[in-house]
């Protein structure tokens, strides 16, 4: 049983006079076995939240706390966060020239587990997960994210998640740029992980489309750097019909007041 707790998190980007506060007091708790959807308009700070949890150096934490099972995540290096059981799939994954998917996955698994996975079972696990994600075996020999299509990038991320078996997974816009088939395959990968229990999922999304495949336990509406509304999966249906306009208007009025 794990719990990721985010309390009154404030984050800025930029330096000196250019520093801009993006997260303005985020509160969120994600426990293993739960799936939380964070939904909000473009530019509301959703990716900033993901990057801040990941420890990206561009984002400065100016207040609040992030803990995993009581341990201070913000004090951990990026590697320590991964070892502690945090997994983060970014909206725009980076290319890793000269490193094959196969080597990358094995290096990541070794770093996370503290020892190299046994070769025989590892090769079998990678192969069966790739099958389930409907990935061509030749994909394992390609360089990480180099020339990957949108669907390949997201499949590769879910493959990482499947193999690394995190305690908490943060998935930023895993649905963006996916056709219906890829969306189904990727969602099934997430759902397999959920069915095995134990994982807490923070699913960040602009559109409700992916929520047809992955049913969230909780939905949080994110506007202007903070959570402005919360509910169950029915809230996603409301957003689908009504969009974010009412929340954005409210948030501007509070900001002025
Ligand atoms: N590295 C950065 N440098 C400058 N501005 C940034 C950076 N990252 C995010 N921002 C700004 O922060 C705001 C929130 O962005 P983001 O977190 O990507 O929102 P979302 O993911 O909800 O679309 C935007 O105004 C964006 O321009
Ligand atoms: Mg984003």
TrEMBL record:
Keyword ATP-binding in annotation: yes
Pfam families listed in its UniProt record: ABC_tran
Q: Which InterPro entries match?
A: AAA+_ATPase, ABC_transporter-like_ATP-bd, FeS-cluster_ATPase_SufC, P-loop_NTPase
Which intervals hold domain ABC transporter? 4-249
Q: Which UniProt keywords apply?
A: ATP-binding, Nucleotide-binding
| SUPFAM superfamilies assigned | P-loop containing nucleoside triphosphate hydrolases
Under Gene3D superfamilies, the record lists: P-loop containing nucleotide triphosphate hydrolases
PROSITE patterns recorded for this chain?
ABC_TRANSPORTER_2
Gene Ontology molecular-function annotations: ATP binding; ATP hydrolysis activity
Entry similarity comment: Belongs to the ABC transporter superfamily. Ycf16 family.
What is the protein name for this chain?
Answer: Fe-S cluster assembly ATP-binding protein
Which species is the source of this protein? Geodermatophilus telluris
């Amino acid at each position: 049983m794990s719990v990721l707790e985010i309390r009154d998190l404030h984050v800025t980007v930029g330096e000196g006079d250019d520093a801009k506060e993006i997260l303005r007091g985020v509160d969120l708790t994600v426990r293993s076995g739960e799936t939380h959807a964070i939904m909000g308009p473009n530019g509301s700070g959703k990716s900033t939240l993901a990057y801040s949890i990941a420890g990206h150096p561009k984002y400065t934490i100016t207040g609040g706390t992030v803990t995993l099972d009581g341990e201070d995540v913000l004090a951990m290096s990026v590697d320590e966060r991964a070892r502690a059981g945090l997994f983060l799939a970014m909206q725009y994954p980076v290319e890793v020239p000269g490193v094959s998917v196969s080597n990358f996955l094995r290096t990541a698994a070794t770093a996370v587990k503290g020892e190299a996975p046994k070769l025989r079972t590892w090769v079998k696990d990678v192969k069966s997960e790739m099958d389930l994600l409907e990935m061509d075996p030749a994909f394992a020999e390609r360089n990480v994210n180099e020339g990957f299509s949108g669907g390949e990038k997201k499949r590769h991320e879910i493959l990482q998640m499947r193999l690394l078996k995190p305690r908490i997974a943060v998935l930023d816009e895993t649905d963006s740029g996916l056709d219906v088939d890829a969306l189904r395959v990727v969602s099934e990968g997430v759902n397999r992980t959920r069915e095995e229990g134990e994982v807490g999922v923070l699913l960040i999304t602009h559109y409700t489309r992916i929520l047809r495949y992955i049913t969230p336990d909780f939905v949080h509406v994110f506007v202007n750097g903070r959570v402005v509304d919360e509910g169950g999966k029915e809230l996603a249906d409301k957003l689908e019909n009504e969009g974010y306009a009412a929340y954005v208007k409210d948030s501007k009025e509070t900001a002025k007041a």
